[in-house]
């Protein structure tokens, strides 16, 4: 059996939260294993920028978290902008919430979308209501600045809460650095604090990046993959990949100290049909869809209402590209169903629509049949070493 060892960099979600907190709390945190990805670079660059126009390119977390961050930087006026796609990703819920709290944010081009003009000022109010069904990043953005407000913040969430583990991640990070929070039913409360203690924070590696190695393991003949610095008890939503692949795709995960090993379970009985709610972990929907396609297992995923406002409309992108390769897909606004898998159509050119996860989720299919991934460098948004790591499996771009 071939054994491969992979070293991933830190979680992009954890890294981008900690960078904002570090900036708010005078660099009290000594961060280790920070993500090397482009979205984290964009966050670092924005936080140290002295410019008036700050461009965060494709980074959703940077756009949302920095909107809140800059709104409380007194005496600083900036324009926060991003890529063409970022200007299509909605931000009104967060802007309305911050303005209701006392911030001064306006739209430079289209109402409800970046770019934003943010006039930093002291925020006076400390209770807010906002819809929770569009993006958890709006809620995280508010949580990150909450302890810096004089009276802290109470956030009342309305409707279904999407991507909830990401909110839990934010609150657990706040707790770890000494900020008191509570999250009960639909109400989050965060207490004010002036300073946090000087401390080290070691960032767990990125489970979303690990998901592509799970897919490779599932589509390979016989592989054992070791991935460093991933934990059973993780802050990350996409840790769920281990459970999904164990249950449906026959991949066993062993958690050792500081490292996991994954391999195929012998004589695994694959299901005839898979049904999954992905509302907690939207970023691995593409990985799971492609593994199911490669293994020829029909699958229905629900809870995907946020996929259409990510780097691209991921539901349409998945349908288009899977159908090119021989699948039959039906989508709605919030679901994806791979109904039939005909014979694989080789040598297709896979469009990536500027979405890193389209490139990375389709790449493992090359273990089964040849295909070409267009604009392979999009992977840098979250996983700079992706193609280098895939060379170890003989997968090239
Ligand atoms: O808070 C975070 O770090 C993230 C939250 C999720 O976004 P939504 O809450 O918009 O689904 C996820 O898709 C994104 O990649 C990262
Ligand atoms: C959706 C993603 O990122 P963001 O929303 O932060 O741009 C992602 O990484 O899949």
UniProtKB/TrEMBL annotation:
This is 3-phosphoshikimate 1-carboxyvinyltransferase. Its EC number is 2.5.1.19. It catalyses: 3-phosphoshikimate + phosphoenolpyruvate = 5-O-(1-carboxyvinyl)-3-phosphoshikimate + phosphate. Pathway: Metabolic intermediate biosynthesis; chorismate biosynthesis; chorismate from D-erythrose 4-phosphate and phosphoenolpyruvate: step 6/7. One of its GO terms (biological process) is chorismate biosynthetic process. One of its GO terms (molecular function) is 3-phosphoshikimate 1-carboxyvinyltransferase activity. SUPFAM superfamilies: EPT/RTPC-like. Pfam families: EPSP_synthase. PROSITE patterns: EPSP_SYNTHASE_2 (PS00885). Belongs to the EPSP synthase family. Keywords: Amino-acid biosynthesis, Aromatic amino acid biosynthesis, Transferase. The keyword Metal-binding does not apply. Residues 48-390 form the Enolpyruvate transferase domain. It comes from the Bacteria. InterPro entries: Enolpyruvate_Tfrase_dom, Enolpyruvate_Tfrase_sf, EPSP_synthase, EPSP_synthase_CS, RNA3'P_cycl/enolpyr_Trfase_a/b. PANTHER family: AROM/DEHYDROQUINATE SYNTHASE, PENTAFUNCTIONAL AROM POLYPEPTIDE.
């Amino acid at each position: 059996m071939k054994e491969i060892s992979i070293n991933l960099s830190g979680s992009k979600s954890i890294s981008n939260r900690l960078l904002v907190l570090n900036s708010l709390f005078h660099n009290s945190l000594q961060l280790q294993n920070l993500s090397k990805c482009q979205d984290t670079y964009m966050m670092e660059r924005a936080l140290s920028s002295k410019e008036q126009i700050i461009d965060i390119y494709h980074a959703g977390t940077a756009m949302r978290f920095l909107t809140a961050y800059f709104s409380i930087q007194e005496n600083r006026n900036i324009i926060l902008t991003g890529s063409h796609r970022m200007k299509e990703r909605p931000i009104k819920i967060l802007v309305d919430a911050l303005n209701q709290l006392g911030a001064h944010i306006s739209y430079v081009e289209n109402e409800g979308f970046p770019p934003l003009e943010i006039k930093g000022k002291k925020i006076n109010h400390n209770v807010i209501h906002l819809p929770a069904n569009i993006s958890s990043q709006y809620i995280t953005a508010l949580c990150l600045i909450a302890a810096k407000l004089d009276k802290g913040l109470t956030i009342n969430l309305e409707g279904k809460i999407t991507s909830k583990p990401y909110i839990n991640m934010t609150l657990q990070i706040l707790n770890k650095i000494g900020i008191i929070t509570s999250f009960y039913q639909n109400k989050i409360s965060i207490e004010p604090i002036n300073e946090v203690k000087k401390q080290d924070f070691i960032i767990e590696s990125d489970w979303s990046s690990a998901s592509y190695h799970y897919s490779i393991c599932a589509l390979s003949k016989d592989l054992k993959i070791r991935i460093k610095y991933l934990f059973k008890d993780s802050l990350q939503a996409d840790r769920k990949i281990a459970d999904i692949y164990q249950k449906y795709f026959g991949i066993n995960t062993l958690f050792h100290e500081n490292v996991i090993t994954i391999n195929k379970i012998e004589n695994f009985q694959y299901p005839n049909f898979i049904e999954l709610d992905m509302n907690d972990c939207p970023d691995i929907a593409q990985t799971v869809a492609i593994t199911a396609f490669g293994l020829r297992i029909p699958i229905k995923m629900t809870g995907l209402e946020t996929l259409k406002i990510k780097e691209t409309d991921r539901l349409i992108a998945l349908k288009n590209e899977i159908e090119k390769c021989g699948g039959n897909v039906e989508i709605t606004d919030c679901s994806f169903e791979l109904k039939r898998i005909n014979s694989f159509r080789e040598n297709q050119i896979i469009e990536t629509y500027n979405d890193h996860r389209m490139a990375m989720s389709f790449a493992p299919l090359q273990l089964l049949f040849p295909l070409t991934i267009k604009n392979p460098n999009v992977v840098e948004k979250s996983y700079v070493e992706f193609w280098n790591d895939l060379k170890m499996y003989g997968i090239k771009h």
